Amino acid sequence: MQFDYASAIAQRPSDAAVPEFYGKFTYKEAYQNGKATGAVIPDPKWAGANLVKVDLTRFKGFPPCGGQPSKTLWMHKFVAPVFEACMEEAAALGLLSELHEYNGCYVPRHMGWSPKRPLSCHSWGIAVDFDASTNPYGVSRFPISPAFVRHMEERGWIWGGRWTGSYADGMHFQFTDPIPGTKVPVWQDAKASVKKPVLPAQNRRLIIDGQVITQGRVVYHGVTIAVLEDGSAYLRPTTGEEQAGRVAQPPAPSGLSARVTLLNQAGVWEPFAGRAVYSGLMLNLDAKTGDLWIRQATPEELSRARA
Ligand SMILES: [Zn+2]
């Protein structure tokens, strides 16, 4: 069963709306030897009503905590389902084994442990930290698995490694909208829409009669050939209207992944691989590079295709 990331992402609050959305609580500053530690002591009633326990032992490869196997964490009840779905998928993809340590979720405290700053998302149990020892706060280095980061960002988590200067927080993932002004990668929230394809694994190149095209649409000997933004390419016979210049941008098939698709004679879109004649053209898809070579088929190739 597929988790409904789209709904979770659509409901996610902005950073500023976190107290409103995840619940306001009263708290006292924590002191040690007369000095504020940056931790806070919240009203326990809030935690009792809003936090749920997540079993970490079911996620294969989940990294240890303080040298010991991670067992459970407390998390906000609204975020736990999306976290569990992300961890399940990450485990299945082998991404959890790329992490070295888990460093906490629910910790009622100020941002950066500074009593002068607002409360951290950790105070609501809506943020998790991984690989803290190699990704200290305020340092823009991030030797953390890029594949894991992307996995989380696609599923609606905001990665602190996108923040700059003293805010840089490469260990940190929180479930809020991106902070306005923050640069987010193209794959951020990709799971928000199943129709919008995730970015290409490769940059598709069309090589038509030796000429290279990386994005856009061309009409070539009666075939309309297009490369979309996501790297997918489609080919279909050019319509009469298009030939007359009356259609500026013919509709592309929807819901396709980053691959090459042809409209066949039955009017059905079908994936293409290898080498074949199509509508009088010779197509050759290089499986290694993803390049699609196109030229007019020779009379010999045409007759062989018909045979
Ligand atoms: Zn954090």
From TrEMBL:
Gene3D superfamilies: 3.30.1380.10
Top-level division of the source organism's lineage: Bacteria
Matching Pfam families: Peptidase_M15_4
Domain Peptidase M15C: 116-174
InterPro entries per UniProt: Peptidase_M15C, Zn_M74/Hedgehog-like
Positions of transmembrane segments: none
Name this polypeptide is given: Peptidase M15C domain-containing protein
Species this chain originates from: Deinococcus xinjiangensis
